[in-house]
Design a protein that fits this description.
25% strand; binds zinc ion; alpha/beta; globular; 2 domains; 19 strands; Rossmann fold; 23% helix
């Protein structure tokens, strides 16, 4: 069989397929042909000549970068395949955010799967991760690939926010969440928990929330979290309410204008107490869109590839774990992936 690194190999621009002449998630430079796993900015950039992605990812890219983000766009649904210069490419859900896909590359009997970012736990805003059968080389992300990272149940974290709201009804509960994926997921989990009140959103999230709604993900009543400059009195209506804004907005002027704000932050990194402290977060919510240690190792066992390649994060611990399990593993050391979205 073909040597795997003749089918996909790490290059400066990203993961490159020589026979197909395409890149997967090239972010350091614009390329002629790109296959994009999902819409986060550290995987999807504007300016490629040709982009292949799921219909939802193409919509997300158009919303973020404008309709002309690539000269040519090609949509591919989960389960369908296309042939690029003789190489078959298909998508399976990655469970990371709306439209996120694992890229399945088949060529001369060799099957390689690049996960992009993924997680295994329930997310009401996207299709669940699917285990692809018959994988020779599995290329896994490793954002939280340390045994200390074990994310708690999402319902419990959502419950913390609702309990705090009940206990401190005079305070504006200001939740930091990435505008793509995390914000919509937090809202959907709150609705699942029975919270039917309007949720106030930062302007940066409006278009993406509308896109999720168009894609059939009900987010319930959303209202703009708008405060007129210099008019503190108008802020009174936000007391006892949930306001969601991008992480950076929490500590800036925008966040400080709300009455008695209680800063919360929904992120996998909130399990690191120091990170919560640095950001001045009073209510850390450990809600992650990435697989934790147990999800990563269970996924590798389930997929059971002949070889494991590891990228985007902490590669060494997972390589060591794989070796102890008697698995072939190699770190890819791809650069330029700055973990947007968790
Ligand atoms: Zn991502």
């Amino acid at each position: 069989m073909l040597r795997p690194d003749l089918l996909l190999r790490p290059t400066r621009a990203g993961l490159y397929c020589p026979p197909g002449d395409f890149y997967i998630d090239p972010v350091r430079e614009a390329v002629d042909r790109a296959v994009i796993t999902h819409g986060h900015a550290d995987h999807a950039r504007a300016g490629h000549s040709h982009v292949l992605a799921t219909p939802q990812t193409l919509k997300i890219m158009a919303t973020r970068y404008g309709a002309g983000f690539a000269a040519r766009q090609q949509a591919l649904d989960y389960g369908e395949s296309v042939t690029i210069n003789g190489v078959s490419v298909s998508f399976a859900p990655a469970g990371h955010i709306l439209g996120s896909a694992q890229v399945i590359v088949d060529y001369r009997g060799l099957r390689m799967v690049a996960t992009g970012d993924y997680k295994r736990r329930r997310d009401p805003t996207c299709a669940p991760f699917e285990v692809v059968p018959g994988v020779h080389v599995f290329i896994s992300e490793a954002t939280f690939a340390l045994p200390v990272f074990r994310h708690p149940g999402t319902a419990g974290e959502t419950g913390k926010l609702l309990s705090s709201l009940e206990a401190q009804p005079g305070r504006t509960h200001l939740v930091g969440a990435y505008a793509l994926g995390k914000a919509q997921r937090v809202i959907a989990h709150l609705r699942d928990a029975g919270y039917g009140e309007p949720i106030f959103i930062h302007g940066a999230m409006k278009a993406l929330c509308e896109l999720y709604e168009e894609e059939g993900i009900a987010l319930g009543p959303l209202e703009p979290a708008t405060l007129e400059k210099g008019r503190r009195a108008g802020g009174e209506r936000f007391r006892g309410r949930i306001v969601i804004g991008p992480p950076s907005s929490l500590a800036d002027k925008w966040g400080r204008r709300f009455p008695d704000p209680l800063p919360a932050f929904a992120s996998g990194w909130m399990s690191v107490r120091q990170r919560a402290k640095q950001r001045g977060v009073e209510l850390p919510l450990i809600i992650s869109d990435h697989a934790d240690w147990d999800e990563l190792t269970e996924t590798v066992r389930e997929v059971d590839p002949e070889e494991l390649w590891i990228t985007y994060g902490r590669e060494d611990a997972l390589v060591r774990w794989a070796e102890l399990e008697g698995r072939r593993a190699r770190p890819l050391h791809l650069v330029g992936y700055a973990e947007e979205g968790d």
